[in-house]
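User: structure tokens for this one?
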Amino acid sequence: MDLPTLWFWIIGALFVGYFVLDGFDFGVGMSLPFLGRDDTDRRVLINTIGPIWDLNETWLIVAGASLFAAFPEWYATMFSGFYLALLLILLALILRGVSFEYRHQRPEASWKRRFDTMIVIGSVVPAFLWGVAFANVVRGVPLDADHDYIGTFVGLLNPYALLGGLTTLLLFFTHGLVFVALKTEGGIRDRARRLAMPAGLVAIIAAAVFLAWTTLAYGSPLSAVIAVAAAALLIGSAVANLRGKEGWAFGLMAATTALAVATLFASLFPDVMPASNNAAYSLTIENAASTPYTLGVMSWTALFALPVILLYQGWSYWVFRKRIGRSFIEGAGASTAGALH
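Assistant:
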């Protein structure tokens, strides 16, 4: 395997990590109106991701930086052509992060409701638009001979991309509900488990249609195998949730999300940005990659840095592994280490 191909799959793995980890963050944010009956419930929900949400988002930073360094042509075309969509994602992520930090700064209920609404919006918008963006990358977009995007923002909102956005939205919502069931106790846990069933059923239908469309229109034998595995694991997660096996349900849901993203990258390979108007204008792994020297330096850096990142993140999850409930919030007082209020 040459270095450009290696880095294509490394970047794919980084985006897999981001969507798996920040995916359930988005799901928790989207669950606030459904599971949070009062402020204490909402504080419990926010505290399930309080110590880890910003750590999960670092995967996006690493993935974006790696994309910029390893495939500058791909980065330039994607971030210029999808500028408005990616700007909306960035603004939504800022909105969500600010809300986590500021909702507890004042005691008024109206103050907290406004920031809770911002958390929901800041979770829904990225969950939907990431699916739209990556579906368009797989489908292909109009490019000119210089590999510049020559379409419009409206052109990105095609039926396949919208279905991709709906699929990621539903997968992340279900992922978040399963995570809440795993991390909480009492009534919130029960409500999360119950809501995960209809949400999971709708997600199964949307994901099945989207993955089938992807495989038939843009896929390869490899992507077909991965898509079938993703569908099977999604059904397995629903069954595990129904039986109250929350650890299994969460693990299978994480694997489903990982394989769904892997399906997109397997369908894309060996292109990185297909040109829908003229295949000769497509960006491929070879013509979009940096120099061998750059990729070599990146490879040695990743060899030492990635294990450290994985170990640190694993340690963080282990430290904050315990369930929380209303008693955790009610007994927290004015300050709780590692928690958001």
